[in-house]
Amino acid sequence: MPAKLDHEARRRDVSAAVWRVLATEGFSGLTLRAVATELNATTGLVTHYFPSKQALIVHALELAEARTRDLVPSTENSRGLEALKQALAAVLPLTPEATELNRVWVSSWDAALADPELHALEKARYARWRSRLKPLVIQAQADGDLPPDNPDDLVAGLAAFTHGLVVQALFDPRTFTHKRLLRLLHSHLAALTPQ
After folding, report:
1. Are 80 and 192 in contact (CB under 8 A)?
2. 26's torsion region: left (phi>0), alpha (psi -120 to 50) or beta?
3. Residue 107 half-sphere exposure toward CB, CA atoms < 13 A
4. C-alpha span between 93 and 96 (Å, rounded)
5. Residue numbers in the chain where pLDDT is lower than 70
6. Which residues contact 139 (CB under 8 A, 6 or more apart)?
7. Predicted model pTM
8. Backbone angles phi, psi at 16, to 5 degrees
9. Is 172 left (phi over 0), alpha (psi -120 to 50) or beta?
């Protein structure tokens, strides 16, 4: 039993090192050697847990998705448009942790576009995000807060708008302040409200 616990603890250590490398170097700097250096260990130790750079990248994407999910607040006490605002605002770079996560995601796009396996993983991740937003859009439509358009189209538009804000804020945080990001998001949602 202690050996299993040691193995799991060591895997967590390696995962934490993967994240630190990602946060500082992005996906272009994520290598087995960089993770080993971060751990002050050999590449052999890293390859024990992740036998290839591809396995390392897949794990890094899983870590990023889990951390992103953890940032999204529960919408149990809200519904419809209010819950949708909370869910969309949760992905904006409004905290140091959310900024770090978004930097990791944006740095992963190049690798995901070039590699079929990573491409499929990212496509599925975005589909999961849209599927979590869809019930909130449908509630907001039922409440009369969003137009009775195709909910899939509304979700796709809101996801694209929110990611556009993310990218602009990462490149120009002084112009796209936290306050402005929230104002732009709320104004966009208000403009969709049927008259």
Report:
1. no
2. left
3. 22
4. 7
5. 1-5, 73-75
6. 79, 80, 81, 83, 84
7. 0.82
8. -65, -40
9. beta
Tell which residue, 52, 62, 74, 132, has the closest CA to residue 104: 62
- Alpha-carbon torsion (108, 53, 125, 179), positive or negative: negative
Which pLDDT score is estimated for 3?
53
pLDDT of res. 178: 96
Kindly compute the dihedral angle of the four CA atoms of residues 135, 136, 142, 144, in this order, to the nearest 10 degrees.
-150
CA distances from 181 to 8, 115, 121, 153, 165 (A): 40, 32, 28, 22, 7
DSSP string over 115-178: -HHHHHHHHHHHHHHHHHHHHHHHHHHHTTSS-SS-HHHHHHHHHHHHHHHHHHHHH-TTTS-H
User: Which residue type is seen at 162?
Assistant: T
Domains in the chain, ordered, with CATH?
1-51 (1.10.10), 60-192 (1.10.357.10)
For every residue of 31-74, DSSP letters joined together read -HHHHHHHHTS-HHHHHHH-SSHHHHHHHHHHHHHHHHHHHSPP
CA distances (Å), 176 to each of 55, 89, 104, 187, 191, in order? Answer: 35, 14, 19, 14, 20
- Measure the CA angle with vertex 129, ends 124 and 130; round to 5°: 95
